[in-house]
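Person: Please comment on this record:
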Amino acid sequence: MASLVAILDVKGKSLIQRSYRDDVPTSYVERFIPLVLDMEEENVTVQPCFSDEGINYMHIRHNNLYLLAMSKRNSNAAEIILFLHRLVSVLTEYFKEVEEESIRDNFVIIYELLDEMMDFGFPQTTESKILQEYITQESHKLEVQVRPPMAVTNAVSWRSEGIRYRKNEVFLDVVESVNMLVNASGNVIRSEILGAVKMKCYLSGMPELRLGLNDKVMFESTGRSARGKSIEMEDVKFHQCVRLSRFENDRTISFIPPDGEFELMSYRLSTPVKPLVWVEASVESYRGSRVEYMVKVRGQFKRRSTANNVEIYVPVPGDADSPKFRAATGSVVYAPEKSCFIWKIKQLGGGKDYLMRAHFGLPSVAGEDLDKRAPISVKFEIPYFTTSGIQVRYLKIVDRSGYTALPWVRYITTAGDDYVLRTISDSKSSSIIAPL
């Protein structure tokens, strides 16, 4: 349980705060930033949870804000940290951007949300779709009493009763992001797959859904043999609608879904992965005059698949100017604010490779240290493709009214925020790169 929840700016000034138990003085909020600064000065890693003078501080950072919860009791820190993340997602649903200006402009509705989302320090309703049914940004007349929906007090607090659709449909997306670090020798130093199962449900009534995946643990526990590849997921996290006891017993993902769009589950796989989009660059530097690049990209995935919206960010010296480009496909733009040029390819087929050449003026006499050069980063999206091999075996929809629903399943693989390659080498001979 939390005694107090506050939202602070980057300097530690309280923008809004709500006391739930009155056992932690509000003056302790002002001590938070000095404690953080003291830890940073002592080169101590600032933990999301720490204690001082008998007060527990639990916080997360979002954009230029701190979301802080304080408690005097031995609280469930993981629960409160999760609540702060849910508070961010709810505020994002309401205001699109959660920043200092949006907090100041909407303090009345934020107080209403804090009162509904937590009661006497215990988290209550955190589902934004239910909150939006009775806490709106429109003004209400005094004689009109706004009643919370029944879902707030029901066992299924994330879905309202009486939902009706003329056409019942379920859309399921399996989205995997690949993070990777490749060293200068072309060896994969680190790789991981971050996956998420996202759903859009347009179903009438109170349907129960059952989702089956090619889960390795499920096949081993039931003694059944997998027809194809099975995967072992790590760090699995579920939406609150999933019946965890059922999953622990027989690995069946059973749930009554929220209405509309939501993330059903997320997972991680640390299995070795080869680079799906391979990029290497050869650099010829003429000190004090110019620098030339030859960049090669190759799609290292199945030929029947295609990577869409490929963007390759190649670093250049900060003082480079007069760019000239020549590419076999796509387009190239210079981004001086990022000290790089970006090669954009709309579609890259599996097994295909392309070349591009770049030329820059280099007024600086000082040479660039190769070891300190930033790596190449890549963005892409491959539809109908999963790196891990995860498969939806079945998606069953059960409702008392017995209507039929259409389930749609789609797979997407994208580059994560940390897909980088240090495959930049200096050319010894200027004959490698033809002049532009």
Q: What stands out?
A: The radius of gyration is 27 Å.
